[in-house]
Amino acid sequence: MRVWPGQPYPLGATWDGEGVNFAIFSEHATAVELCLFDGPEATEESHRIRLEERTDQVWHVYIPGLWPGQHYGYRVHGPYAPQEGHRFNHHKLLIDPYAKAIAGTVEWSDAMFGYRMGDPKADLSFDTRNNASNIPKSVVIDQAFTWGGDRLLKTPWDRTVISEIHVKGFTARHPDIPDHMRGTYSGLTTPAAIDHLLELGVTAVELLPVHHFVRDKHLADRGLTNYWGYNTIGFFAPDIRYTVSPVRGRGVREFKTMVKTLHSAGIEVILDVVYNHTAEGNQLGPTLSFRGIDNSAYYRLIDNDRRYYMDYTGCGNTLNVSHPRTLQLIMDSLRYWVTEMHVDGFRFDLASTLARELHAVDRLSAFFDILHQDPILSQTKLIAEPWDVGEGGYQVGNFPVGWAEWNGKYRDTIRRYIKGDGGQMAELAYRLTGSSDLYSTSGRRPFASVNFVTAHDGFTLHDLVSYSGKHNEANGENNQDGTNDNDSWNCGVEGPSNDPAILELRERQKRNFLTLLFLSQGVPMLCGGDEIGRTQKGNNNAYCQDSEISWFDWNLDRAQQDFLAFVKDLIAFRKKHPVLRRRRFFQGRHIRGSEVKDLAWFRPDGKEMTDDDWNAGYAKSLVLRLAGDAIAERDQKGRPIVDDTLLVILNAHHTPMAFTLPAHKRGIRWHPVLDTALPGENGKQVTGFKGGEQYEMEARSIAVLRLNGKHEH
């Protein structure tokens, strides 16, 4: 086969219309071989080409006459010296770290490991079996796509409403999605999927990992899979499992069509990305890609024994972000997904790991520096999961300007309050108003806080109020996996109940959770399926359940339909009122020319809260008044939009209470617009309540009232 020297950049396999340039980084390799295959099932190479050119530690070659759809892999030669950090094994075919498509999935066998399984020397031994029949092949793609006028939507943070969904789980059982499109990127382009998202009112979907991932061997041995996908092996390739056509890289086009269709509906696409570790695990893991290409460059190793890996992730290894080529890999991947795939932003799994320069989490790390100065990535939505499992890894509130964060403190506080725990008033006030204690001192805005009460890794909302403990038996780990969620609330009875009072209390608690979520300052994130009462039957760690345990059930009963309608109304109410999604923190000061503060807190007797009231451990009820001032939002021409003043009444007590409505001005009336104890009855009180009158609240309920007239201070 005729070959040319080629170029060291771009990395990966690049088709230029006449042939393909291949480029792969390896600092410590002694030789690199490119292996070409006739298809994904081929077990023998049709050609094996030794790369003779090496520029700046990048091995490269150009092959004229190759076309998109070509399957390939690499064999990399070098020392096998685990105690020195090197694990080269040319008997193992390797996935290109820059592969834009990967055909197939790992088929587990002992040949997938660089050492001899069962050998007394363990990973210090050396295995010579060929794994070509078990490793998925990388695929050359044609990057061309007709985007038309598609571009990033750049929905302002204060107008953003996120739904966290799984590509397969959302579409797998939908009766109005064609069978062959269920569970795929294409399924999300169907009218049934788009209509649900639009009618719900979300502005962005946050997709659980879609980078090509590996089904863990221990799960495969038990007949399970890594359903969530937090086990990445290909940072550029959309996972083949979610494609209608897995042939020769066509899934890339399907993914792009999904993004373009969602954009046309005004919905942003945010990817949950896992750059903190890979699917190769610890020293006893398989050799799939990075380990065999340059183990010591790609992974953080223990300094005094480089046989072993630093593990800040709990997954066996940690990517070495301090190495310039590993950092380049991450940045190239991010830019690729924005420039070529048109995604709008990223949620970074265990993001604290990426900030570890040496050992401690560093806000001034190279990772942050490069992101901030990048003209493309700095303009996208960047969301951190601000913790990892290492020492000092919990970093909620500590990420730099430009980042939003999953606010774990918000989740925990709201759960404790709704459950009925005392001593939550001061913490609750911060969480409802954008967590200024976490974000204001660094110059960040309320929308730095991504608020949520449930997410993929825990109970669904329905299960949170229905089970007192986890039921993960289906995972095959004797119910020992998953967190022991002490904040769950079961209304006194675990599991299904035929008691109407119990069922109603559960539904009310669900309404309470989401009412607070969508009334809070910050960016609300809904765990997909919570709006239709999705249940996992008490499983709070369904990471391995690619089954009806995890999939949405679209066969809704009357209670689920009513709850869906309630959630739609909540989101619509939030969008209608800029005072619920301010771009700046409340100051607690009088609005110019008025008699009220922008934010005020009241006791049930109608008097403003004192320091003693905030510190009272027994207090579970309060009232907050949000003044609809003219600076809450401006229209496209910069003119102020005047909003209503809202009153929010919270009663987490197990008994009813009467609340005296504030009266800062004679003649004012408060009109009920929402009461979680009276679903379907909201807004039917036409005359309203005078200031100073009492409003009766049921136990464990929340109400919202609107001041008569616009901007009436």
How would you sum up this structure, described in words?
With 713 residues, the chain is of the alpha/beta class. Among the domains are: 12-139, Immunoglobulin-like (Sandwich); 586-707, Golgi alpha-mannosidase II (Immunoglobulin-like, Sandwich), CATH 2.60.40. It has 14 helices and 31 strands. The strands form eight sheets. The protein has an eight-stranded parallel β-barrel with strand order 12-13-16-17-18-19-20-21. Strands 22-23-26-31-28-29 form a six-stranded antiparallel sheet, covered by helices on one side. It has a five-stranded antiparallel sheet with strand order 4-3-7-11-10, with no helix packed on it. α8 packs across α9 (425-432) and α12 (500-519) packs parallel to α13 (558-576). The chain is elongated and about 90 Å long.
Short note summarizing the structure:
With 713 residues, the protein is α/β, with parallel strands linked by helices. The chain is 19% helix and 19% strand. The strands form eight sheets. It has an eight-stranded parallel barrel with strand order 12-13-16-17-18-19-20-21. It has a six-stranded antiparallel β-sheet with strand order 22-23-26-31-28-29, with helices on one face.
Number of alpha- plus pi-helical segments? 14
Tally of DSSP β-strands: 31
Q: Hey, roughly how much beta strand do the residues contain?
A: 15-25%
- Name the shape in a single word: elongated
CATH architecture of the domain at 12-139: Sandwich
Helix-strand category: alpha/beta
Keywords:
six-stranded antiparallel β-sheet; 31 strands
SSE diagram, text form:
Layout: E1 12-15, E2 19-25, E3 31-37, E4 47-50, E5 53-55, E6 58-64, E7 71-77, E8 80-81, E9 86-87, E10 101-103, E11 137-139, E12 162-165, H1 167-171, H2 191-200, E13 204-207, E14 211-213, H3 217-220, E15 232-238, H4 251-264, E16 268-273, H5 290-298, H6 324-339, E17 345-348, H7 366-373, E18 381-384, E19 404-406, H8 408-419, H9 425-432, H10 436-439, E20 449-451, H11 461-464, H12 500-519, E21 523-527, H13 558-576, E22 599-602, H14 611-615, E23 621-626, E24 633-634, E25 640-641, E26 646-651, E27 657-660, E28 669-675, E29 689-690, E30 694-697, E31 701-707
Parallel strand pairs: 12-13, 12-21, 13-16, 16-17, 17-18, 18-19, 19-20, 20-21
Antiparallel strand pairs: 1-2, 2-6, 3-4, 3-7, 5-6, 7-11, 8-9, 10-11, 14-15, 22-23, 23-26, 24-25, 26-31, 27-30, 28-29, 28-31
Helix pairs in contact: 8-9, 12-13
